[in-house]
Amino acid sequence: MWLENKVLEGQYIILEPLHESHVKGLIEAVKDGEAWNIWFANVPHFEEMAEYVNQAIKASETGNIAYAVRCKTTGDIVGTTRYYNVESQHKRALLGYTWYSNSVRRTAINTECKYLLLKNLFENHHAYAVEFRTHFFNQASRNAIERLGAKQDGILRNHQIMKDGSLRDTVVYSIISTEWPAVKCNLINKLN
Known about the structure:
The protein is of the alpha+beta class. The chain is built from 5 helices and 8 strands. It has one domain (8-191): Aminopeptidase (3-Layer(aba) Sandwich).
């Protein structure tokens, strides 16, 4: 496999490859803010967490690596994120399935999470591109992706059917390898 399933550690967080032992912590994290109620987000209900984790672990066997996000100051699991649609032959992946407990939103945690994931892809695995996708109406996610330094590539209209039956327009962003040095400086500056 192109990507290694290993721990990534920063100043504020530890990204731990997702394991069944993370289910309890993720249940507590998702209850903080009840993000499953946001109609345009794909966040699991706490009753679905064990299956959500099991599916992510199975996907990791094909190179789609999922992580639990652990806050270093509290030791708590505060969310999850992953590499998915990994294309080894083209050296590219998507970053997503990211959600956090309400108590850590708008903190350094997401910035450092993305920094660690991007650094791993571009510097350790020599990726050519990283892609992000979000719902057209998820303005908070779009703002966060743009703050990273990603550029909007376009909108996939009527791209997915949501749980409630509505059609999702998906906004696509990317960062390419030649942009990584500037994006890296921006993220380090934000973390400092």
